[in-house]
Design goal:
By secondary structure, this protein is mainly alpha-helical. The chain has one domain. Helix content is 63%, strand content 3%. It contains seven helices and two strands; from the N terminus they run ααββααααα. Strands 1-2 form a two-stranded antiparallel sheet. Helix 2 packs antiparallel against helix 3 and helix 5 packs antiparallel against helix 6. The protein is rod-shaped. About 6% of the residues have low confidence. This is Transmembrane protein.
Length: 257
């Protein structure tokens, strides 16, 4: 069985940003956001309304279904937020490249990543906070007439149309903003890794070219007969004689003469 490069490459840890665990958790959080949105639509369709009769009002339903739907939507959105941000916190804290990050002030790509990360972080928490507050308002209103909802009363507190729908949209936006924050962190990690690899390659090349290989020194004697020029040994085509070599040979010839 042939061994491929993928077999020799190290398996990424489960806490890495680019691991399968990270992708699975991001998909799970998006599904929880979609589930929250569907539950909000159910709560919007089943929300209680008031009917007036002779300056008194009664509720059109007990409010149990919108209460349960809003509660489940609240829990699903909170779970999605916890899953995404806990994984991001653990992955970033264990990533050496992101912990010891040093941005190049002249890099336009680094500036873009910084602005994107700040935007997604603020947008995620803003949408999450507003969506959860709207769901809490709906929960408090719908839980106020679980009993005696058919009893006439002088005032009936109901939820305005579109409150649960807006909460569902904000919940869906929350998980997508958080996914954008995850993708931005992943791009930042890969950008830093590319910079480190480029810096390492440049350092290796500079070391290699700073110390060129030395030519081998050949110690060969020079013999000359009387009345003849210096008998120079045969050399390879790649061997280059120095000026000192010829000076020493002619000096020995002059002494023999």
């Amino acid at each position: 069985m042939a061994v491929t490069h993928a077999d020799l490459s190290p398996t990424p840890k489960t806490t890495n940003l680019g691991s399968k665990t990270g992708a699975f958790l991001m998909v799970l959080s998006i599904l929880l956001g979609l589930f929250c949105f569907i539950l909000c639509l159910i709560a919007e369709a089943a929300r209680s309304q008031a009917k007036w009769r002779d300056s008194q009002c009664i509720y059109t339903g007990t409010g149990k279904l919108p209460l349960l739907s809003a509660t489940a939507a609240f829990a699903a959105l909170a779970a999605a937020m916890v899953v995404q941000h806990v994984f991001l916190l653990v992955a970033v804290s264990k990533s050496d490249s992101l912990v010891e990050i040093t941005w190049d002030p002249q890099s336009q790509f680094a500036k873009t990543l910084t602005w994107q990360a700040g935007f997604f972080f603020v947008a995620t928490w803003t949408a999450f906070a507003v969506g959860e507050i709207q769901l809490l308002i709906g929960l408090s209103v719908e839980s106020g007439h679980l009993k005696d909802w058919e009893t006439p009363r002088p005032s009936c507190l109901v939820i305005r149309q579109g409150l649960f729908t807006a909460a569902g949209v904000l919940g869906l936006a929350t998980v997508f903003f958080a996914a954008g924050l995850y993708i931005t962190a992943l791009r930042a990690e890969r950008y830093i890794q590319i910079q480190e690899n480029t810096r390492r390659d440049i350092l290796e090349l500079s070391v290699m070219y700073a110390s060129p290989p030395r030519s081998p020194v050949r110690d060969q004697s020079v013999r000359a007969d009387r009345g003849e020029g210096p008998n120079l040994p045969r050399q390879d085509e790649h061997y280059v004689h120095t000026l000192d070599y010829y000076l020493r040979a002619f000096d020995k010839q002059s002494r023999l003469v």
